[in-house]
Structures are given as structure tokens and as C-alpha cells.
Amino acid sequence: MNPIRVLSVLAALAAPIMIAQESKKETYRDAKAPVEARVADLLSRMTLEEKVDMVSGGGWMESKANARLGIPAIKMADGPVGVRNWYGPSALTMRANSPLPTVTSTAFPAGVALGATWDPDLLHEVGKTIGQEAIALGRDMMLGPGVNIVRAPLAGRNFEMYGEDPFLSSKLVVGYIKGMQGTGVMATVKHFAANNQEYQRQTIDAHIDQRALHEIYLPAFRAAVVDAHVWSVMSAYNKLNGHWCAENPRLLTETLKKEWGFKGFVVSDWLGTHNTAPTANAGLDLEMPGAESIKRLRAMNVPQGPGDIGQRGAVLTPELLMPEVKSGEVKEAAIDDKIRRLLTAMFANGLFDHPKPGGGQVDTPEQRAVARKAADEAIVLLKNAGDALPLMTEKARTIAVVGPNANVARTGGGGSSSVKPNHSVSPLDAIRERAGSAIQVTFAEAMPQAAELAGKADVAIVFAGDSAEVEREGHDRESMDLPAGQDDLIQAVVKANKNTIVVLNAGAPVGMDRWIGQVPAVLNVWFPGEEGGPAIAGVLFGDTNPSGHTPITFPHRIEDSPSFGNYPGTDGVVNYAEGVYVGYRHYDTKNVEPLFCFGHGLSYTRFEYKDLKISAHKTTLTVRNVGPRDGADVVQFYVHPLKPSVDRPVQELKGFRRTYLRRGEAVTVEFPLDSSMFSWYDGSAKKWVADPGAYELRVGSSSRDIRLKGNYELK
Ligand code: BGC
Predict the structure, then answer these.
(1) Which atom of ligand 1 is nearest to the CA of 195?
(2) Disulfide: which of 191, 224, 474, 649 matches 230 by Cβ 3.0-4.6 Å?
(3) d(CA 297, CA 699)
């Protein structure tokens, strides 16, 4: 036998033995082995080159796979209000003559609308449903939710967030993440931290004192990590106190990983990295998107809007990262930590054992029902003088539906959160459907026809407000004014018919002073998702009793807002000089009368609050529905320090309960008390302080409709 043949026969004989040994050794492939053991095993099998390779992205929405070891890519999609098309900027997807398919999914109401529900259980349902759709579409990880606090009324992404209060945002984000991650889909809380404006979003340096940072801007992220165990955190584009968020060791390592015990991985915002070793050493674990996608994007010269994308490329590619590791600038242990985190998340979420093949169903009746429930709960009745709403069908025989937002479903704001639903119904169509043949519905988009129709109708409904072109990512609004011509339209219509109802799409504060005194009723429907049309019709006709409460203050004028004078910044720096006085903390403490205060929302019924009882560890009260209809109330609990040792907001939200009550029904609502509710953050001592002494506990239906008060002594 020739020597080569001898060798191959020997090799063939040895092969089964080697395979047997190999498979015995491959703990990481054993679905029954503990995650930690699988991670340790796989990590030990990876070469340095393979580990370094895994730190930067594979495609626009995929991490890199490793074929030799069978490590899958993490497949992502944008959220947070539905699964967005993941093929990236549309031009990137346009391969010559073969456009990639468009992904559709259920479009849920915008973040601020979800904020208006004050309903963590609903957020759980929404997160779960989006998780189910992500699985149906073959995605492992969603890029959402967003919990940046609404600081400045004009910031372009306000509509994506849960509002101006850290306590409310914290409770809601926990519900959402638990719902989503319960399905096995990883959530990504973003953008960490202080991404509170779109103006110069990729370069702005947010200067924030430690107290404001801990009391206002960080709590919802902390809750996402500590209470909901989120698997992924996305670093923000901007700088925080002089350091890029993506290469900020204080933020990513000290606070997030050490102090909060974050076990997941940090992903960069898209093209939000700057320098190789500082990024790797600060604690960023995965850079996105992949270098090739960036090159293709540049080659296609996709217009991205001012300030977007810039000229940078990926900075954690093997070509750039490996020399830093070889030179010792980045320790191999730091790389191991990143891979350990990525693999832990992947094993724990079944990426190795249960790949998601896609091809499932989305936008099913059950999923739509969740979107509808969310829209129902989100709609806020801002004003209802003389019970103008609900519409009395005996009296409203002719309804003039007018305005630019009537004949179109404004499902969401613009940018990476925008979802393409399979179906949506405009408010006009939904009203027609609900009105039936007995009521005449007329329609005109603009003046003077709109005013003419209003003059002939029993009731006029003006659909005004923003669109996805006005409120969008990558761009801040220039003023709080409604889009051009809309104030005039509303005034002309109300002049023609005093029974005019205004329905707004406003994901952020808009000015209403020019007409608010003239119109009897105003609804804000935010961006209500694909089921917005029927949800709006339901509230107008009284099939649904409105129960949303605004999670943002609507000031009369931009000059009244806390960030005024310190927004959008100069010379690349935005100074958060208002400190902790954000939102109602500012209006209430400085006695600035808002147009609509934080927590405000009317109902078609009335709720009575009684029997406030305060004991050492809890506050209780009775809430009774004393009005004419069944409905839901949101009871709000605020703490007012009577003798604070430092300058403090006059009151802060520390509890809330949404409760549905039938006519005449009553319930006991309980708010447990703990020291965190009385604490403020001492920036120099770097710790929370709960001053003993006297506090007033307040219960109300909004921050300015406080109905019960009692004193409490913190020992
Ligand atoms: C946005 C992120 C988004 C990412 C991917 C960025 O421009 O800031 O919120 O997840 O793009 O689309």
C-alpha cells in the first residue's frame, strides 16, 4: 500500500474516535448543560482572531456568525412599536433590479402614547406581542424600548419615549421588557444616556450634573437592568459630560455593569462609535452595523439628514482592533468579557438550540386587538367643556370631518421606529363606519370648504397636528406651532360652528393658545398605531370611555419650558442648567401655569377619592366611580417634602394605579411606602439620601388636581 493510502486509512480509522472525543468535549452544544458551562466551553475553543472578529457587526441588522464553531448571527430589527423592516436604509436594500421584500407587522401606538396609558400590564402585553411577531419574522433581538426623558418640547424623538417622568417611565419599561423577553426575544433599552434631542445628535455634548443624571435621566435604564434584566443596552450617539457615550467607562462599566450588575451586552447605536481602544476598553461589547454595510451605504450616497452618519467607519473591525490587542492597549480579558456577554445572551435566549426560522404570522386578530387596546387606553381627553363629548347621536345628525389628519392614518412618527402595518383605518373611514347610514358625514381637508361644511353640520371635528415628517428622528421641530395653516383652519371652523371638536396627533407639546378658549373639546390621540382610527371613533361616540393621562406637560409657550435658554446648545454643548427641574418638577416648583399639566386626562365619568389612610409602610384610599358610565381612572401619588435639606422639586410622582371601575363600584388603592420614595441623589457623596422628617403625601388625578393630602414622618 502506498504511504499516502496508509495514512488515509489510519486517519479514517481514527476519525470516529476523534469525533466521539470531540462531541463528548463539546459542552457548548449540549442544550441541557448550564449556560455558564456552555459559554466557558465555547469561549475556550475560540481563537483570539475569532473573538476579535465577533465584536463588530456582520450586516446592517446582524452580528457576525462563526461557521467553524456554529455560532449563529444575532438577527435584529428596529422597534419599539412593532417590528420594522430590517433591511436598513431603503437604498441599501435595492440590489440592481431586485428590491428586497418589505416587512410588515402590527403598528402599535408610539411610546408617548403608551406612556399615556399608565398601564404596565398593557405594556407587558405590547412587549409580548411584538416579541411574538419578532419570532414570527425570524428576529432574535428588538432595538427598543426607548426611555430617554422628554426634556425639551421640540426634540424630534419625544414621541418615541414614555414622557417626562422617570418613575412612570421605569414602571412602564419594566412591563414592556418582561413581556418581550418572556417570549425569548431580547429587548434593547436605548439610548444610554441623555439622548434628549436630535439637533446635532451625533456630536452634541450634554452637560448634566450628577444629581439630575441620577434622579431624572438614569432611573428608567436602571429599572430596565435591575428589575427587568434587559439583555441589551444601546449606547447613545451623543457625548455625556465631555465623553462619547459609546466610549464612556463611567457610564458603561462603572454604572451599568458594576453598580447595576448588568449581565447582558452593550451595543452601539448605528455608526455611533469613534475610537478603537477607548471604545473597547470602556465596555462596549458589539459595534453595529457591520463595516461592509457602512461602505455600501457610503457608496450609495444615501441622504441621511443633517449630522447623520458623518464620515466615520466602523472602529472595532479586526483590522483596527487586533493591533490594539496585540500591543496590549486592549487586554484579551476585555475581549473575553465581551464574548462571554454575547454568548451568554445567545445561549440564554435559545439562539443555538431553537433558531427562529421566520415565516410565521403577524398582524393576527389577537395581535391587532392588543394594538387596539393600547390605542383605546392612550387617547387623552384634554378638554370637554359642557360635555361636548361623547357625541349625542340624536343631536349630531350631520358631522363635518375636516383637516389634514382626517383622511389618513397617522400611525407613528418618523425614523427608525416607523412600522409598515398591513392595514390601518383613517379616522374618517372609522367615523363613517361607526356613524352608519343614519348620520351624514361630510369631509373636506382644508379651508374654506372645511368651514363651509362645518357651518352646515351639527358638529365639526377637526383632525390636526403632526405627521411623521414633522415629528421624526434626526430632526427637531423649529417651534411648538402646529404645521402651517392649522391654527387658522381650527379658528375658521370654530367660527363657522361652535360645536367644534379638535383631535390632535401630537407626540410632543404643541401650542393651542390661539384657539383653545374657543373650542369645547380637544382629544390628543398622539400617534395611535394602526388601530387608531377605530379607537378614535370609539371615544368620539362614547363606545370607549377615555382614560389616558398625559405623560408630558403641555406649556402655553416654549418660553415657559424648563430647557428654554439651554436648548439646543451652543458650540456643540447643551447645558442641562435646569438640573432636576424637568417637566412638572419645573412648572409646579416655579409656579408656571401650564396649558395642560402632567398627569391630566378627563373621563366621561367621575371618580371620587376618599378615606386617605397613612401608616408607617403604606398609604391607602378608596376610589369610587360616582359618574354615569363605567371607566378607568389613573390615581396618582405624589410626595411633597415639607422641610427638605436641599433644594427639591415641590412634588414628585412616586406611585400610580390604573383601575377600571363599573358605575358605582369602589376599590381600595394601596401605595406601599419605602425610603426610595423620599430620596434625592447626593452628587458629591455619590449616594441616595432619604432625609428623615416631615413629608406631605398627595393623591390626585393629575399633578395639579390633588384631592387628598396627609402628613407622614420619615423616621
Ligand atoms: C437610531 C436607533 C436605531 C438605529 C438602527 C439609529 O439611528 O438612533 O434608535 O435603533 O439607528 O436603526
Answers:
(1) 8
(2) 224
(3) 53
Mind listing the domains of the chain with CATH numbers? 46-348 (3.20.20.300), 379-552 (3.40.50.1700), 605-714 (2.60.40.10)
Cell of 324: 490594539
**What is the model's pLDDT at position 293?**
87
Residue nearest to ligand 1 atom 8, measured at CA: 269
C-alpha cell at 81: 412599536
> Are the C-beta atoms of residues 399 and 453 closer than 8 Å to each other?
no
Residue 11 has pLDDT above 70, yes or no: no
What would the pLDDT profile of 208-260 be if each residue is shown by its tens digit? 999 999 999 999 999 999 999 999 999 999 999 999 999 999 999 999 999 99
For ligand 1, the distance from its centroid to the CA atom of residue 539, given in whole angstroms, is 34
Catalytic residue IDs = 269
| Residue 270 Cβ < 6 Å to ligand 1 | yes
Strand pairing partners for 450?
A: none
Whether 78 is in the pocket of ligand 1, judged by its Cβ within 6 Å, is yes
Distance CA 257, CA 25 (A): 31
pLDDT of residue 87: 83
d(Cα 382, Cα 430) in Å, to the nearest integer?
A: 21
Contact residues for 565 (Cβ-Cβ < 8 A; gap 6+): 577
DSSP SS3 for 653: strand
Q: For residue 269, how far is its CA from the centre of ligand 1 (angstroms)? A: 6
- Ligand 1 centroid – CA 62 distance (Å): 14
| Cβ of residue 190 lying under 6 Å from some atom of ligand 1 | yes
